[in-house]
Amino acid sequence: MSDVRVKSDQPEESLEQQQASVYEMIREDIVSGRLGPNERLKVAELAEHYQTSTNPIREALQQLRGEGFVVMEPNRGARVRPIDADFVRDIIEIEVLIEAALTRWFVSIASDADIVELEAIQAEIEANNYADRIRHGLLDTRFHKFIYDRHYNRHAAELWWKHREILRAISRRFPTSLSRRVSVFREHRELIACIQAQDADGAAAVVARHVEGSGRHIIEQMGVALRNGTAKRL
Predict the structure, then answer these.
(1) Beta bridge partner(s), residue 93
(2) At residue 77, what are phi and psi to the nearest 5 degrees?
(3) What is the three-class DSSP state of 71?
(4) CA-to-CA separations, 143 to 33, 35, 129, in angstroms, rounded
């Protein structure tokens, strides 16, 4: 069988970008409810819908299965897992452990320059004050990534990133309450203070509270949307 190559004027990474795009589109359709809870995910139909071949669909479904968005059963194929309070709770319980551990490590190696960088990022977060939600998300990710990316355990850091992307995709559907905004600013400041004081236990406790609060806020907003009839059960 001859080896098929991409034309020289097409970047090699474009195939990876296509795969990522298909994955992101399916994930977005699951989170938004366009692909409903327990809906069957047939490879051929999805390939036609997203105008791609079947291989990117299969790979995307495997990735989504690993993230908990898709359930695969023998002889029944793939279906959408309902995104409900239990789904969010399960992720949050894991994240409390991971983020606390990553933060403890950072405290042991943090420098004065690191404190300056965290304060600078936090100043940008507060200056934006949620006016631009996309910018807030990017800055908030930058704040936490600065801490977690320094850890020697890359598997733990990558799991944090995967979970963060899932929660961010879900939380995009809902507004951020004023009380949650205040809590985020306060907890970030408390975290910086603990890191500066070399208080690993205090920093881990702040992060655990921060993650729990984020999960609780998402679950509460999901409940409000359901009660108001503004969103169907995901």
Answers:
(1) none
(2) 80, -155
(3) strand
(4) 30, 33, 15
- Domain segments of the chain: what residues? 14-80, 85-228
Q: Indicate the pairing of strand 40-41 with strand 77-80.
A: antiparallel
Q: How far is CA 91 from the centre of its chain?
A: 10
Q: Tell me whether residue 6 is exposed, middle or buried, using C-beta atoms within 10 angstroms of its C-beta: 0 to 12, 13 to 18, 19 or more.
A: exposed
User: Listing from the earlier edge strand, what are the strands of the sheet with 77-80?
Assistant: 40-41, 77-80, 70-73
- CATH no., domain 85-228: 1.20.120.530
Residue 10 has pLDDT above 60, yes or no: no
Sorting pLDDT into bands at 50, 70 and 90, what band is 76?
Answer: confident
CATH architecture for segment(s) 14-80: Orthogonal Bundle (1.10)
pLDDT in the model for residue 92: 96
- Long-range Cβ pairs for the range 175-184 (8 Å, 24+): 175/221, 176/130, 176/133, 176/217, 177/217, 177/221, 180/213, 180/214, 180/217, 181/129, 181/130, 183/210, 183/213, 184/125, 184/140, 184/210
CA distance 137 to 157: 18
State residue 123's pLDDT score: 98
